[in-house]
Specification:
Strand content: 15-25%
Strand order of the largest sheet: 1-7-6-5-4-2-3
Structural class: alpha/beta
Helix content: 10-25%
Order of helices and strands: EHEHEHEHEEE
């Protein structure tokens, strides 16, 4: 229920932009992060608002929340990030709820979930502005050995 399959996360993330983002809308992304998080706003004419991690790669939810405006349509969060940094469930919840107040969608990309073990999936039922993407790619513990060159993603 409520699962869409794509040929890789790029396709799923791009679909979110196609459906929810209009030119001049704001898209918030943490930085550093997944490269496509910076490309898609440009492709769709949106204004990218970047929120940087601290020097130790920690992140305060208030820093993200302070950037959300009425023009914000989408927040892009890789959790954990490729830097190995993870945002706590409590801080994710604060961000999701603040985004909901502005009618903004939150994408949590859990591409590295298997290296972290925590997920925000339990938050979906109570937050209709939350989308979670997961991918299973070559080298992922989720891909059985007979499928080494396949990539499947769910949003």
């Amino acid at each position: 229920e409520n699962i869409l399959l794509f040929n890789g996360s790029d396709s799923g993330i791009k679909s979110l932009f196609e459906v929810f983002v209009e030119p001049q809308d704001e898209v918030i992304s943490l930085t550093p992060s997944y490269g496509m998080f910076f490309l898609y706003p440009k492709m769709f004419g949106a204004k990218l608002i970047q929120v940087g991690y601290e020097q130790d790669f920690s992140l305060q939810a208030g820093k993200v929340i302070g950037k959300i405006t009425e023009r914000t349509k989408l927040l892009l969060i890789a959790n954990p990030n490729h830097t190995g940094t993870a945002i706590s469930q409590a801080e994710l919840l604060m961000i999701i709820e603040a985004a909901a107040e502005h009618k903004a969608l939150v994408l949590i990309d859990e591409a590295y979930f298997e290296f972290h073990g925590e997920t925000a999936i339990s938050l979906i039922e109570d937050h209709d502005n939350l989308v979670i993407s997961r991918t299973m790619a070559k080298g992922s513990p989720s891909i059985p050995p007979p499928l080494p060159s396949r990539q499947i993603s769910a949003v």
